[in-house]
Design a protein that fits this description.
Layout (H helix, E strand, L loop, with lengths): L2 H14 L5 H4 L2 H10 L13 H18 L6 H15 L10 E5 L6 E4 L3 E5 H4 L5 H16 L2 H8 L3 H21 L6 H16 L9 H17 L6 H10 L8 H7 L3 H11 L13 H9 L3
Parallel strand pairs: 1-3
Antiparallel strand pairs: 2-3
Helix pairs in contact: 3-4, 3-10, 4-10, 5-7, 7-11, 7-12, 9-10, 11-14, 12-14
Length: 299
């Protein structure tokens, strides 16, 4: 057995030997509660979004998204993708975030990350990949966005930031009112104000908008590096992008990925400039058999 595969397997046993099911990783009731709890974090409108606020924001948004796009029912697939993602995330500069990875049950070919460490990949995209190295590269690209706080930068640079701050300010007003009334009851008004911070980000289509092209290219570079550091063949992400370049926009769901990312051709051109730094990792494994075994069992 290849030494790199042995190292990854050993690390997986240490990190995930007691890992729970996908439903435990993404408990909807818990996520909804945490989405509401966003309002308990008060701040001034001009203050930067802190890491705890970032995490709560992402969890609130995840609850809304999961209501519209349910998780795939295969718990083994969910566990597998979560293990790969969390292993790659340990190579990032933010390993202590509450990273969670999940497969949504849609033929759309897409993957996306939320603030605070929630990463989703569609079953449609998974079915297009050939090995674990490509999967690691795709997840590493999304980890790169979270690691560099790209979504937070975009939120703060747009009018959308007012949605989050308005909810926090509304909570502050409610808290003052309750303290004057001598009550600690969480009112319906407060709950609505809290939930709107995450809900409005989804309603106004923020997460279907493209990030700055420079941020996408940076996530590609970071992602390729993270996957290589995790022990995977360094061209996994490049191979996945090459696959996307062969698809037509009218194919199932491809237009979403194309509309939120630079063209695969442009991404490959940028990565080509960076590729020489990855050459020393090119002999690392693709991990084809494990990926094929998991996917073969998916209904």
């Amino acid at each position: 057995m290849n030494l790199n595969i042995k190292m990854m397997m050993f690390a997986w046993v240490i990190l995930f030997g007691a890992a729970g099911s996908a439903s435990a990783q993404f408990d909807l009731g818990s996520l909804l509660k945490k989405g509401i709890d966003v309002a308990k974090k008060t701040t001034e409108a001009s203050k930067d979004i802190t890491e705890p606020e970032e995490i709560n924001m992402g969890e609130g948004i995840a609850a809304v998204l999961l209501g519209a796009s349910p998780l795939h029912a295969d718990t083994n697939l969910q566990r597998y993708v979560n293990k790969v993602g969390r292993w790659v995330a340990t190579q990032s500069s933010r390993p202590d975030l509450p990273w969670s990875f999940a497969v949504i049950d849609t033929p759309t070919i897409n993957a996306f990350a939320l603030p605070g460490g929630k990463v989703f990949v569609s079953i449609g995209l998974l079915r297009m990949l050939k090995n674990e190295s490509e999967l690691a590269g795709v997840l590493a690209h999304e980890i790169g966005h979270v690691m560099q706080r790209h979504q937070i930068q975009a939120i703060q640079a747009s009018k959308t930031s007012a949605v989050y701050q308005d909810a926090l300010q509304a909570e502050a007003g409610e808290r003052i009112a309750r303290s004057r009334a001598g009550s600690n009851v969480l009112t319906g008004t407060l709950s609505n104000a809290a939930a709107s911070a995450g809900i409005e980000l989804v309603k106004n289509g923020f997460f279907s908008r493209p990030l700055d092209r420079g941020l996408e290219y940076e996530a590609d570079r970071v992602g390729a590096t993270l996957a290589a550091k995790a022990g995977y063949e360094s061209y996994g992400l490049i191979s996945a992008i090459q696959m996307l370049s062969t698809l037509k926009q009218e194919e199932s769901g491809v237009s979403i990925t194309m509309s939120t990312h630079p063209t695969p051709t442009d991404r490959l051109a940028e990565l080509e400039k960076f590729a020489p730094t990855l050459d020393k990792f090119s002999s690392q494994p693709l991990v084809e058999e494990r990926f094929a075994k998991v996917m073969a069992a998916v209904k």
